[in-house]
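TA notes, week 10

Several of you asked for a full example with nothing omitted. So below is the full record: structure tokens for the whole chain, then the designed sequence directly under it. When grading your own attempts, check the secondary structure regions first.
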């Protein structure tokens, strides 16, 4: 679990319009990743969850060698973003936590679970 805050004006769609499952990549963040996650082994399934208490957040995760993009928006009726996906390869992942509104500052925690 790590924490941070949103507040950028860089459009995440400029990194990718959509991810490997054709989910749209939306929201605004800083041009540099908010977090770096290093997986030392492959994981068959991971869940990446943002918690702001319900603010409208987005996620973009760029995989090792920039070859895999995963994007997330709302989680059910909750406006906080999450990504549940399979086939996470060992390596370095860049994580951007965005907000639906440009420059909206939202404090968050980010958690990753199997």
């Amino acid at each position: 679990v790590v924490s941070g805050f949103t507040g950028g004006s860089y459009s995440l769609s400029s990194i990718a319009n959509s991810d490997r499952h054709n989910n749209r990549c939306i929201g605004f963040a800083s041009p540099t990743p908010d977090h770096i996650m290093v997986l030392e082994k492959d994981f068959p399934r991971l869940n990446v969850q943002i918690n702001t208490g319900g603010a409208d957040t987005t996620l973009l995760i760029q995989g090792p060698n920039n070859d895999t993009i995963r994007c997330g928006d709302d989680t059910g009726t909750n406006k906080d973003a999450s990504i549940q996906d399979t086939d996470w390869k060992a390596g370095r992942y860049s994580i951007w936590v965005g907000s639906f509104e440009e420059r909206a500052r939202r404090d968050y925690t980010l958690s990753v679970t199997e």
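The chain has a mean pLDDT of 95. Use that as a sanity check on your answer.
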